[in-house]
Amino acid sequence: MVLTTSNSSIPKEVIEELGEIDSWLPLIVTIVYEILRKDQSPWYPYINVLPTTFPPLNTLMFWNKQELAELQGSAVVNKVGKEDAEEAWQETIIPLMLKHSRLFPVEGAAERAKRDELIKLAHIAGSLIMAYAFDIDTDDDRKEPETFYSGEHAEDDFTPDEPLKGMVPFADMLNADAERNNVRLQLMLGIKLQR
User: Per-residue pLDDT tens for 29-40?
Assistant: First the structure.
């Protein structure tokens, strides 16, 4: 029901190599993995209907410098953060994906070409998370169910402003107006989803 790192078939050891970091990077790696698996992924029907190419995925991350220059004077230009994101990825998730190249098969013979393709896929995954992911909160008095996060991570490893993120295919069929916060689901496992 929920695409998270623990509900993917990505080897848990790969995610654990990232160490204790925010919930975004493991989910980005997981989504890139599932995208590259194509129809071998059980999440393929869901991923197949999401915008994963440019265009139609046209967030500011995918605008070139000339297009962004048209927004000068707007506060949004400084919020894009593309270079910062790529710099952080070059030190964390890109080396991990290159190390496990059989899990992340991308085009290109040279390492630079593979890095570029993985960065592009990471931007796609990050944009999908921004647009479609839910914050998955658990009850304060319970540990997170093992099926939603594995390893040593327990609920108290996450701060309230950094909840676990997950993609919820069923919820994406509903109208979700972030201003009205009109989509609230409570699954039988006691996990609350909020977009």
Answer: 999 999 999 999
